[in-house]
Amino acid sequence: MQDSTAEISETILSVNNIEVIYDHVILVLKGVSLHVPKGGIVALLGANGAGKTTTLKAISNLLQAERGVVSKGNIEFRGEQVQALSPNELVRRGCIQVMEGRHCFGHLSIHENLLTGAFTRKDGAAAIRQDMEMVYDYFPRLRERRNSQAGYTSGGEQQMCAIGRALMSRPAMILLDEPSMGLAPQLVEEIFDIVRQLNQDTGVSFLLAEQNTNIALKYATYGYILESGRVVLDGDGAALRENADVKEFYLGTGGEGRRSFRDVKHYKRRKRWLA
Fold first, then answer.
1. Deepest of 158, 169, 205, 267, by most Cβ within 10 A of its Cβ?
2. Which pTM does this prediction carry?
């Protein structure tokens, strides 16, 4: 296990005041800034449509396929600006995204899906076999279903396969989009437990986008809350879980239903996008 204290002091990802526009006219992200420490788990929180997936796609350079572009700001991974790189170049540098909805190759077996994650590697078959065994150790269900066609496995198994496939690229950082979507609570806990174990054992950093604020803040060391394409609140995961506004608006303990931070007159949002 790596020294988590040493890891946490270094920033692996910096998103600096970015704006994202679709179709040259639709402004989706408005001055978003966030940072992920090396060896950390950071949660990107907010309701559906808040801009979480767009933020991850801006980082992984997948916007172009959807006619989106980072029009302002910059993104640094391991100290270098990366917004001009292609997605596969970014994967080679150690940053990979696990897409929302799992997106396994349904006609391939679980084993074949995992092998596709190693397509950028040039360190030989023995190293790939070793990492395959590591993935199977973390996800014993995948070992049991290794010869099964992925399209006929359960949603939880497909999510495990998608994360395992990302691990096969030997990443320094994984962008994980809505890992809890469509899964039973017990499976969600199991997957998040594995994510935390992976983080502790291998030092892989995680930026995870989640609507399930309660589960995300249970595992994240730090969190950012997005509303309408802007960061409206950020802080340590434990502190956010105890924040009265977060409890009321996102954890369902305020008694008045979910409202927006914009509705709270006493709340002073940090206007970093104006900086």
1. 205
2. 0.86
